[in-house]
């Protein structure tokens, strides 16, 4: 061994024997005077790529790790002469040289990786072999024998997974092997593919996943053909028999006028065998005789009220079953645009008289049966104290109600009102026409109900042959499930989408995605006598303790840009675009409170001191800090948001309990929760401000400043005073926090292109449901 190599090995001995803070076993040893390197397994891949040089006994023995040697084609010379220069791993700025005669052998890095891979494959350690094989494929794709090594890995891993019952993974392995190396044992691979396909098909059919089974079978037939895979021919025949059986059952159900069963069976027949003779024609025939639409929803409705501001499902389904005296059709430059369901309205120039003109000759039953005196009584009841229909803003606005003939009702107002129609959003039921209270007045009536499925059937004879006979709402476990079913054709409509889902669906040629023109405001509403939540300082701490921007952008929007979706500083919508008239109640000069957990902790301490001082003055006991029960509706968007809020409040050392509300409910029963997550449709702040913040509203606020702000709005005589009053109320709500504002969401809906008549810029999904039809 020459002098330079001797110096190197002396240095190695010195380093290996030096005492230090790090134990010898924790160090990576790069050279030694004897022996061979220790086996390190997967940790080898954490080292810098290197070759190993082993020295002869005559040269003193030992080994050294060197940076990859620059051999032509990475092949060790067969009969080398002279010297070899190399760089030792871990020794910088120094190049070493030795005679070739001193070298016993050189172990190349890639050969070492191959050896490790083969040994792990041989003992069935495929998880261990995979990283080594991945490095080889990445760095040495042209190595001789790599193709066989990779094929051996896939084949043996597939066998192991099949024995463990992992049929899906086995199929994936075998298909990758066939695509990669079709020359590798082709008969064995095709035989294994046929066998594993048979097992998978049996499992899918047993689980009732017929459409998924058919899709897999069609793909396998396209990729391999019936001739190569015996299982494909077998299952094609079985599926044809099954499709024919279901088709016959569908025809029998159709003849028996069991249209629901006929529809389901005819679609199952086509799903099982898309090319079955007469299959699609039968589906179209049944849809023509009994048009039916399936709507995917996150919440089915248990209460039907088209005027509810806090219950999306109730508002949606309520519009299907009930009409409202004044229905909001959209937003205009000055508040909402309303339609008087019984005719037209007239307002005097000074807005001190508001007249309702009935046009019953243009209406269909039961709306055509309305009597002017009945309607006048209903309007009067809304202004009469101690009646269930009493509504204080209308009582404060109207002075007298009279009739001028059989079709005209005159409402004299105490003072000019900018939008009296918004005060008369009253649901209409059958009792208005001499029928039963609660009887439907919309195009549909509720039929079968359950937590996960509700049917709405046409309430009268169809107005035209293509009119839908039935709307079926099907509750989805998650928004992503609904998206998948819509794409598969199992659903016709989705009523509420996450922004990420809306983007995904908009790329499909079979789906239309539309945005609702009015946003919803999400907030936390206190709903109990929890002593700490009653304190404004504590509520302010809770707001500072929520990273609202992070939850909205990360959890709910999944990092996507969604115009109009934003954190808000108050209970009113901010509009979707700059200078949007929808945001007339929102003061943009008030910025949302930032996430300040340290400030939140400070405010909580301050609040505790204030409560203790007050208790000491009254010689009472300080109220106990009980866990905060946070309630949320049973949908995954609300659940995700509340789980994130809970985790952030727990960082403030608060005890928080989540309470999931029953399906269809959005507000908890008294005593079951302390604060509730609400998605509110504050579409007309003039009226909705009281419905949210008033003593009888959701927040049940008795705050004097809030009450004063509400009265100022209701007494306003023009739009300027209305807007000024709402901006003041926004500032009051921001300071007093009767509700904890979170964010504004712009919601979307989607439907298949076969469904026509849905309309554009609809406020509610079923706004035009009586005009929907399937395009056959």
Automatic annotation (TrEMBL):
Domain of life: Bacteria
Keywords: Signal
InterPro entries membership: SBP_5, SBP_5_dom
Signal peptide: 1-26
GO molecular function: peptide transmembrane transporter activity
Pfam families: SBP_bac_5
GO biological process: peptide transport
Domain Solute-binding protein family: 441-662
Protein name: Extracellular solute-binding protein
Organism listed in the record: Novipirellula galeiformis
Lineage: Bacteria, Pseudomonadati, Planctomycetota, Planctomycetia, Pirellulales
